[in-house]
Specification:
The protein is of the alpha+beta class and about 425 residues long. The protein has two domains: about 180 residues, Glutaredoxin; about 160 residues, Sandwich (Jelly Rolls). The chain is built from nine helices and 19 strands. The longest helix has 15 residues.
Length: about 425
């Protein structure tokens, strides 16, 4: 993905202005699109930060057989660190970097509800399919963003649901993450046959460049490797509707908890006094009244809600879906990380502009009932695809409600790709 561009290009033909401005806007909002290209490691002291240029690549450097004087770390030219602090291995293992010498290793830092990570899965699968027999070993390092992502069974289920078959190391305490000085999900480190980090990439995109380096390192490791000139993958394309819309904007990633919620940048309710409800009454149920006019790109609550460190949850049992959360969003796709405190399934009713979703705009996890009701059945703590519009939408009102006190929102992410969440 590209860094933010704040410079406007001059135009010659007036009738081309909307297209050129829209294209510039596409670059400016590229990180916000789809929940930004990468997600930064959470911190206790600060909420989500505006992301820097979230795709970072490094130029491959010559490796050497003698690594005695190399620094150990995640920078290009470093000797790759050993796996440390691993709670469990999935799909094989345990592995060590020492025993992987002679092979090309791709370390992939991910977490299973990260939409940016999920978008890279098709490319990882292609690399595994194409090059595993030639000496490429992909090792996923699952480092959790949320507490429920530390549960072994949840991670196993995610790998099965996504058909991820390479070895996974469960790095719950960020030990391996920090040994690489990593900061983002997803992050990829390519390591050569001598155990030297030769290439890094943070965030989505750059798939052709990454595969080209994979081929180069495989040829170094094995002169018999034959590059059959398979077509290199292309990055996902942005929705044409987004590119041609005047004043195009994308709702940024929003977190439901106060630790990453950034106060007035995440939560609405119109005004400082009501805003203080979120923080003066955190960790207990508070009653909220939704404003008449919703400020775009912010979460607003109606009724009884509990705002916790990682998530906001419905604060009581109701009968008529009278409590809800609402957001005015701009995007093509909307995703939500949802979970349940009790572990029991529950229904979340979903509407847009107070109308049920249809087959044209419903997300892949939305069910349309016989009476036309659109809802999500939350059965596991994971990311749910809520809305998938056929084209870009600017400022429509999404409402989600449940009668269950288990309704818990961890995060919203938004996408403007031509296809996919």
């Amino acid at each position: 993905m590209l860094a933010k561009l704040r410079r406007e290009r001059p135009t010659v033909l007036c009738k081309r202005v909307p297209l050129i401005v829209a294209a510039a806007m596409a670059i400016i909002f590229l990180m916000a699109a789809c929940g930004s290209s990468a997600t930064a490691e959470p911190t206790k002291s600060s909420a989500t930060q505006e992301q820097p240029a979230v795709t970072t690549t490094a130029i491959a450097t010559k490796s050497a057989a003698d690594n005695a004087d190399r620094k150990v770390g995640g920078a290009v030219g470093n000797l790759a660190p050993e796996f440390g602090g691993i709670d469990a291995w999935i799909n094989g293992g345990p592995l060590t970097m020492e025993e992987l010498r002679g092979q090309v290793v791709l370390i992939d830092f991910w977490t299973y509800t990260c939409i940016n990570c999920i978008r890279t899965f098709p490319f990882l699968k292609q690399w595994h399919s194409r090059y595993a027999d030639d000496g490429l070993v992909i090792v996923g390092v699952h480092t959790p963003e949320f507490e429920f992502e530390k549960t072994y069974e949840n991670v196993v289920q995610a790998t099965q649901n996504e058909a991820l078959v390479w070895p996974m190391a469960q790095d719950n305490d960020f030990v391996t993450w920090r040994s690489y000085s990593n900061r983002f999900w997803p992050a990829k480190y390519l390591i050569d046959k001598d155990g030297v980090v030769r290439y890094t990439h943070f965030g989505e995109g750059g798939y052709a460049e990454t595969e080209d380096v994979i081929r180069e390192l495989l040829a170094e490791a094995n002169p018999a490797f034959r590059d059959e000139a398979l077509p290199l993958p292309e990055d996902q394309t942005l929705d044409p509707g987004f590119l041609t819309t005047r004043n195009a904007e994308v709702t940024r990633e929003l977190y439901g908890g106060y630790e990453r919620g950034e106060g007035d940048r995440t939560f609405g309710q119109g005004g400082y006094v009501q805003q203080m409800q979120y923080f003066e009454n955190k960790n207990k149920v508070s009653d909220f009244v939704i404003p008449d006019e919703l400020e775009p790109h912010k979460i607003n609550f109606q009724g009884a809600w509990h705002v916790g460190p990682e998530s906001s949850s419905h604060g009581r049992t109701t009968e008529s879906f009278e409590d809800y959360l609402s957001i005015v969003y701009s995007a093509t796709a909307v995703n939500a990380v949802l979970t349940s405190d009790s572990g029991e399934p529950y229904k979340v009713r979903v509407t847009v502009n107070d109308e049920y979703l249809t087959d044209k705009n419903k997300g892949s996890d939305v069910v349309i009932g016989d009476d036309g009701e659109s809802y999500i059945l939350v059965t596991a703590p994971t990311l749910y695809n809520v809305i998938s519009n056929p084209s870009y939408i600017r400022r429509e009102t999404l409402k989600m409600s449940s009668n269950s006190p288990d309704f818990g929102l961890f995060a919203f992410t938004f996408g403007v790709y031509d296809t996919g969440p």
